[in-house]
Every structure is written in structure tokens, then in C-alpha cells.
Write a structure and sequence with these properties.
With about 325 residues, the chain is mainly alpha-helical. Among the domains are: about 25-100, Serine Threonine Protein Phosphatase 5, Tetratricopeptide repeat, CATH 1.25.40; about 105-185, Alpha Horseshoe (Serine Threonine Protein Phosphatase 5, Tetratricopeptide repeat). Helix content is about 65%, strand content about 0%.
Length: about 325
């Protein structure tokens, strides 16, 4: 193997504001929406984002969807802001360099009003709105970014028991494990991920698996880690899928199986994980478990590069220079 596979234990932003879905766009109009978006039409960017997200008229790409939602949100598109927040909590199309972003320049007229409405409802006891307030503090939407306030709201919401409190607990756990806005605290993160995983927030089981794999506040237990990673991967945690792929490449805790590794990387890459796409490129470049195919290697490296992974960009340049 000429190159090492890139393992993952990265930062993931975790904020969500639920939105709604409208009528599916016409696949034939993809290029038209893309052109309008490039010329600054917010509503077109919002539609374009959905087309990327669902693979309508183009290849599915969570990363490009997130970029388009962000542009639409900056143009004052309410639904786009909500969908963008949702992608953060799901970790969709978000890579290491995106985890601590500069505050987004969003229309404050709408967001300030939205913030006040949500805060008022939170003060009156709505846990759903409290979760949204935490998101808005953490992301600087409609108010100044304030992690201390976000942590305060998430913590208070996490003390209750419903769907939205699990969202808050998971968001809080991500802040503690990443040390974003608060001192890094693996013990608290582990407790929160354990709570959300047991509470049927299955995606968080993948984060719990990462902690067992990397011995973060717990004794390293690869078998247990794999069990949790598989639950997370099955429930939309792309990074858990990438980690599983790496384990099947290295044979750590499982029998070495390049076919299984490929399947996990492919699943994660499809969901927008750049590291998984890079590792698919590595497989094709070096003929690991399948025939060497430089064109396929370049294709996956280009995707990883497009998703912002510098290592993939370097690999593209290397192969182009051959």
C-alpha cells in the first residue's frame, strides 16, 4: 500500500433548525437554477441545494447542497437557513475545516425577529424552541454568537425528555468532545452520547463508538466500538461508516476485508464524506482489493478535493503529473 488511509475523528458542527420540503424541482431545470444561483438569486440557490441534496438532475452531493443552502441563507431565504442548520446536526457535507466557521453573514432582519420569537417560546417552556435558541446562539443567527448561552440552553433542555431534548443533548456532547466554546471534556461528552444512543438517537451511537475506539475517557474496546459504529453508520453517521472502512482495511478488531472496506467508504462518500472519497481513490490508485484504475482514482480524489480535503487535491496533482 503506497499511501496510508486517512482515519477520522474530526470535528462536526451539530446545529439544526427543522424545515419543510416542497414539490420536487424539475430535473431538466438544474442548469438554469445553477446559473441563476451563480448570479445571486437566493430562491434559485435554495432550489439548487435541494437538487444536489436529493440528486435531482445531477449527482447527489451533500457538500454542494450545503454550499448552496449557505448562499441562499445569506440571501435571506428562511427555509434555506433551516435546512442548512439541519445539515450541521446531521453532519452532512461538513468536513474538518468547516467545523468552526466564521459567523455567516445572514439577513439579520428576519433572523433577529425569529430569534426573539423562539426565545420567548423557550422561556414559556417549549423545548423545541429552546433547542432552536441554542442553535441560534451557537451559530450567531439572529443574535451574537455566544457559546456560553448555547451551552446554557442546551443543558437546560437536555434535562427534559423528548425528541428535541435528545437533539440538545447530542449538540451539547459534540461541543464538549470538540472543545468548541467550552473546555474539552470527554467524560461529559461520553455521558451525553451514551444517553442519546440509548434514547434511540441512533446516529450518536457512532460518536460513542469513536470514543471507545480512541479511548476517549473510556478503556479502548474495539469490539464495542465496532458495534456502536455499525449502529451509527446504519443511521446516517457517515463518519462512522468511514471509520468502519478504515478498520476493515487495517484489520483492527475485524478480519481484513477490502470488499467491506470499499462498501463502507462508498456509502460514506455518497453521503458527502470527503475522507471516504479519498480512500476510494486510494483503493483504485493502488489496486487494493480490486483492479488498479487510475481514472477512477482521479475521479474520487477530485470529489474529495471538491469537498475540501487537501490530501485529495495533492493526489489529483500527483496523478495528473504522471
Amino acid at each position: 500500500m503506497k499511501k496510508r488511509f486517512i482515519d477520522i475523528y474530526g470535528l462536526v458542527c451539530v446545529f439544526v433548525i427543522s424545515g419543510c420540503v416542497g414539490i420536487a424541482p424539475n430535473p431538466d431545470q438544474f442548469n438554469g437554477y445553477k446559473d441563476k444561483c451563480e448570479h445571486g438569486e437566493g430562491s434559485a440557490c435554495s432550489t439548487l441545494a435541494r437538487m444536489y441534496q436529493e440528486g435531482i438532475g445531477t449527482s447527489q452531493s451533500n457538500y454542494l447542497a450545503r454550499k448552496a443552502y449557505k448562499k441562499a441563507c445569506e440571501k435571506g431565504q428562511k427555509d434555506a437557513c433551516q435546512e442548512l442548520g439541519k445539515m450541521y446536526v446531521e453532519g452532512e457535507g461538513v468536513e474538518r475545516d468547516d467545523t468552526i466557521e466564521k459567523p455567516r453573514q445572514i439577513s439579520m432582519d428576519f433572523n433577529a425577529s425569529e430569534f426573539e420569537l423562539n426565545k420567548r417560546a423557550c422561556d414559556e417552556g417549549s423545548q423545541e424552541k429552546c433547542y432552536r435558541v441554542g442553535v441560534m446562539y451557537a451559530e450567531g443567527i439572529g443574535t451574537q454568537k455566544n457559546y456560553n448561552k448555547a451551552i446554557e440552553v442546551y443543558t437546560k433542555s437536555c434535562e427534559h425528555s423528548n425528541r428535541y431534548t435528545l437533539d440538545a443533548c447530542y449538540a451539547l456532547g459534540k461541543l464538549y468532545i470538540d472543545g468548541v466554546g467550552v473546555a474539552q471534556n470527554y467524560k461529559k461528552a461520553h455521558k451525553l452520547f451514551e444517553h442519546t444512543c440509548k434514547g434511540n438517537y441512533k446516529k450518536s451511537c457512532g460518536d460513542l463508538g469513536e470514543m471507545y475506539l480512541h479511548a476517549k475517557d473510556v478503556t479502548k474496546d474495539v469490539v464495542r466500538a465496532i458495534s456502536f459504529l455499525k449502529i451509527g453508520c446504519t443511521n446516517g453517521n457517515a463518519k462512522a461508516c468511514t471509520t468502519l472502512g478504515t478498520l476493515y482495511i487495517t484489520g483492527e478488531g475485524v478480519k481484513e476485508d477490502y470488499g467491506q472496506a470499499y462498501n463502507y467508504f462508498d456509502k460514506a462518500c455518497t453521503q458527502g464524506d470527503a475522507l471516504a472519497c479519498h480512500n476510494l481513490g486510494n483503493i483504485y490508485e493502488n489496486g487494493i482489493g480490486r483492479a488498479q484504475n487510475i481514472q477512477n482514482a482521479k475521479k474520487f480524489y477530485e470529489v474529495g478535493c471538491k469537498f475540501g480535503l487537501d490530501e485529495s487535491c495533492k493526489s489529483v496533482k500527483f496523478l495528473n503529473g504522471k
